Amino acid sequence: MKRTGSLVALLGITAFSTIGAAGSDASSRPRGVGPEFAKYYKDPSTFTCISNPYIKVPFSAVNDDYCDCPDGSDEPGTSACAPVSHFSPSDIRDDGINRTPALPGFYCVNKGHKPSYISFQRVNDGVCDYEVCCDGSDEWTKVGGVKCENKCKEIGKAWRKNEEQRQKSLTAAVKKRKELVATAGRLRKEIEDRIGDLEVEIKASELKVENLKAELESVRARDRGKVVKGKKQGKVNVLAGLAKERVEELREALVEVRRQRDENSARLSELETTLSKFKEEYNPNFNDEGVKRAVRAWEDYAARGETTSGSDAARNRDLDAISKPDSENSGINWEQWENEEDAETEISLVYKVAAYFPDSLISYIEDKVLQARTFLMSNGILADNDVESASGESKAVTEARNAVSAEESSLNKIRSQLKDHKSDLDKDYGRDSVFRSMKGSCISRDSGEYTYELCWLEKTKQKSKKGGSHTSMGTFSGFTTVTVDEQNSSGGIVPREKIALEYTNGQSCWNGPSRSTKVVLECGENDEILKVTEDEKCVYSMYVTTPAACEVASNGNNDRDGRKDEL
Ligand code: MAN
């Protein structure tokens, strides 16, 4: 109720008398009442407390600078009920009285700009709160001589200019977002097309594998039942052919030399018989010096024992055997050598040839060959054919088998690509998949001693300006939302929900967790890191603007994160 002698109470009455009967325009409402609460102040004789209707006071108690209603509704234009505004819904105590403030604050009409509510504590506190009350109406008692002139015209003008700029920027941002969404759609379509192509490629490759396997089987079958026909063209076969010709040549030469030797032996034998007879039959009394010299020469020759005899019989038998064709003696089986498999190497040839050397030489040669072979293989000059030779597989089979393996490995590659693309289509790329078109692109910002980098949907990094390598602040792990306290246009702090990207499992922090980053998004014309904070050791927040976070409100107006201004 009013108190006598109170200037403010008097002014309250003045206010009441000024407002007069309740009406719908600002001048017809009690001071500080917003249009949406006008209906509670219509009865000119009695005021009913808004949240406690069983409490009624005379209308003269409204704005008399004395708080009558527990919810503060009888003092919309003064700070008398300001302490009430500190209460919260939990202050509804057992006594059934509702102490929750019924009004949001003192209503500033702000003609020429936009109306707003200012908290009751700031009413008549001697400070002009132009950022909320540009008309200065919150200081209506001019306490301490403070006079707040109405600045709504200029403040409103500046605000509208700024707002126009903001709207332009939002329009551009929303346009960019649309383009991002369109690009994301195209990228998705490309992946879908690629999936179609890969499915066709897989079918073709599966068929190819099947055919190659069948081919391998038939090569194996041919190989198993193969009858060797004709001569082969491998180096061993050529060498065997040459060796055979040479051996034939030598054998023929040997036969010819033996024939000439036998002929000469026969002639020598005939001559020896003649001379022997000559010695027996000559007349030693006939003093012919020439005859005597001939007889002595014959006697010397016969004494040296160089006459032909049967002692060469054994050697002749050997020569007879060697002179026979290989097929008739136990010599080289040319048939086998000339048809040796191509897989046979010069090394194995050496082994076979070594079989014809004296025993003492064989182990020496084997050692040398082994050393040479090991050297060549370890230097990549000679292929290691052990596996093949161990399995006894022919070159044709090896080639067919390799062809199957090559095709199978290419098929596996295509299958894994298909799997990656399919799982990509199932991935969350945010609303309208807008972040698909941004994935992998990066932005950075210097802050303090570091440069911070954000790569969309990939990594966040920190790099010291002094140099050194990057420190991972996390790898993208998904979308989330965070609630951030923000100032509204009336200067009040309001919680707002924002889209955020989570980056986790970064580089381990000494004596702390693995580094992680929350990237809090705000609608903006450009991708830009506004600020980076380290909220706890190695737990970071990046505040970033991007067109991707802009939404178009259902009424078609551009809006930041879908929120509205309280206009
Ligand atoms: C580096 C940076 C800092 C972090 C410390 C923790 O200096 O990653 O952000 O706080 O390591 O040791």
Task: Give a short summary of the structure.
Helix content is 41%, strand content 16%. It has 567 residues and is an alpha+beta fold.
Set down the secondary structure blueprint.
Layout: H1 7-19, E1 46-48, E2 56-58, E3 106-108, E4 116-118, H2 152-224, H3 235-281, H4 289-303, H5 313-323, H6 334-338, H7 346-354, H8 359-378, H9 386-391, H10 395-426, E5 442-447, E6 450-455, E7 459-464, E8 471-487, E9 493-504, E10 516-523, E11 528-536, E12 539-546, E13 551-552, E14 558-559
Parallel strand pairs: 10-12
Antiparallel strand pairs: 1-2, 3-4, 5-6, 6-7, 7-8, 8-9, 9-10, 11-12, 13-14
Helix pairs in contact: 2-10, 7-8
Keywords:
567 residues; alpha+beta; 10 helices; rod-shaped; disordered C terminus; binds alpha-D-mannopyranose
Protein described:
With 567 residues, this protein is of the alpha+beta class. The chain has four domains: 5-150, no CATH class; 165-225 and 396-430; 235-380, no CATH class; 438-554, Cation-dependent Mannose-6-phosphate Receptor, Chain A, CATH 2.70.130.10. The chain has helices at residues 7-19, 152-224, 235-281, 289-303, 313-323, 334-338, 346-354, 359-378, 386-391, 395-426; strands at residues 46-48, 56-58, 106-108, 116-118, 442-447, 450-455, 459-464, 471-487, 493-504, 516-523, 528-536, 539-546, 551-552, 558-559. The strands form four sheets. The protein has an eight-stranded mixed beta sheet, with no helix packed on it. A hairpin with a 2-residue loop joins strand 5 and strand 6. Helix 2 runs antiparallel to helix 10 and helix 7 (346-354) packs antiparallel against helix 8. The longest helix has 73 residues, at 152-224. The model is unreliable at 2-24, 227-231, 343-347, 386-390 and 554-567 (pLDDT under 50). Bound molecules: alpha-D-mannopyranose (MAN). Alpha-D-mannopyranose binds next to loops. Residues 440-552 form the MRH domain. Pfam families: PRKCSH-like, PRKCSH_1. Keywords: Coiled coil, Disulfide bond, Endoplasmic reticulum, Signal. Residues 1-22 form the signal peptide. This is Glucosidase 2 subunit beta.
